[in-house]
Task: structure prediction
Amino acid sequence: MNKIIAWFIIFICWTANSQSQSITVSKINTITHEMDDFVGFDGLGNYFFIKNNVLYKQTSTELLQYQNLLLGKIDKVDLVNPLKVVVFYKAFNTVVVLDNLMNEIQRIDFSSPEIEIIASATGISSRNKLWVFNVLNQQIGLYDLNSNTYQNLGVPIKNEIDVYQTDFNYFHWINEKNEWNTSTIFGRVTINGIVDASDQIHFIDLTRMLFSIDGKLYFKDLKENQLYQIDIFEKSFKKFYYKDQILSIFTDRGITNYKITLP
Result:
């Protein structure tokens, strides 16, 4: 039912804005590769993927890898800082920090008596800290990688987190009511608006986003109340990734990269 409503809203908004400024998309290249999941690109242009629960980093000259079978399935990989890649093993409540050569430089076990956190979301933040959502108290917090201390931010979150995304300054999440919320590193929370029920979503800033529904890709600007469908060659895909005006589409055949200019 949520998707039916979302499709209706998309149709109305797209019809109203069909004469608005268009989005320019041009194909860059296609990378043919066998992988289970495409993670994304770091700020240096290296791309990361997962195959058989091993994390790989492909540079222009070499293929690096990291694996830790004892920690189970890789739940999330954060590439915001290319010098500190954060790998989250949710089932074992553990984060591993890797350097640019994919060597383990730090491991945080949130289940240790000194910490006592059950993490359901993590990501690198500024000032050498980690974003953490602690389900024990339903609060977002910051874990200091230097001092190994943890600080709660703001007040407990009332509704469940369905989707989240982090960067140096913000922790974005969508709750079960499809509300898009953002917390700053100082704990200030803003409700940005209601978003469409989607298969995947990527927040560009505090008002703009990319999202997909049933194999179709859209760009939405809440501030300008604009919605655009993005035309790409692929009729279906597993995942999309966006960084620095590069849109990557992951399919069974590999990765196709597009240069995209947004309004």
User: Anything to note?
Assistant: The mean pLDDT is 91. Residues 216 and 236 are 7 Å apart (CA to CA). The longest helix spans residues 2-16. The radius of gyration is 19 Å.
